[in-house]
Amino acid sequence: MTEQTSMQDQIKQTVTDNKVVLFMKGNANFPQCGFSGKSVQILTALDAEFVTVDVLSNDQIRDGIKQYSNWPTIPQLYINGEFIGGCDIITEMYEAGELKDTLGQSA
Amino acid sequence: MVTPEQLKNWIESGFDGAQVTVEGDGHHFEANIVAAEFEGKSRIQRHQLVYAALGDKMKAEVHALSMKTLTPSEA
Fold first, then answer.
1. Which residues on B lie below 8 Å from A73 (Cβ)?
2. Which of A68, A77, A93, B10 is surrounded by the most beta carbons within 10 Å?
3. pLDDT tens figures, B14-62
4. How many CB atoms within 10 Å of residue A74?
């Protein structure tokens, strides 16, 4: 298995094993980018239990996640293994009350 | 550095007759896009259409792009 395939498998494993996963720059306590920080704030405001993956710690994750979701930017939110979106969509869903429902289904 | 005008043209080139407005500081951009192609598509699919229109330019030059993607009836 090539390096990249195993990365795709690792990502798949991560989003399958954890109900809510946020691939972000930095971590929940020290977000390294405004969009990542905003996404953490929204999840925290909803009392969501979530796992974060710092894409800055490993370039293979940083590129692998973009390939996995066919989405060129970070952060990326996954709920129940499904790619939900970036900061924009997280914000839109939050404001529409949809994110709470989606998270509720994952509890 | 990318200008809002450039980004507007890149996005428009991916859609027929879309109405696109773009603001930004060269790295962070905000785009409002009204396009018929969004009809029946989820938010993610709409955003992916825009990213597809931007292609590699998105990776290289545009650090952050916030977007509102609406159909003509939603606008």
1. 58, 64-65
2. A77
3. 999 999 999 998 878 999 999 999 999 999 999 999 998 998 887 766 7
4. 25
Sort out which chain A residues have CB atoms less than 8 A from B43's CB and list them. Answer: 85, 89, 92-93
Q: Residue B9 carries which DSSP code?
A: H
Taking the mean position of all CA atoms in its chain, how far away is CA A42?
12
Question: Is the Cβ pair B43, A83 closer than 8 Å?
Answer: no
Enumerate the residues of chain A whose CB falls inside 8 A of the CB of residue B64. 33-35, 73
What's the 3-state SS for chain A? CCHHHHHHHHHHHHHHHCCEEEEECECCCCECCHHHHHHHHHHHHCCCCCEEEEHHHCHHHHHHHHHHHCCCCCCEEEECCEEEECHHHHHHHHHCCHHHHHHHHHC
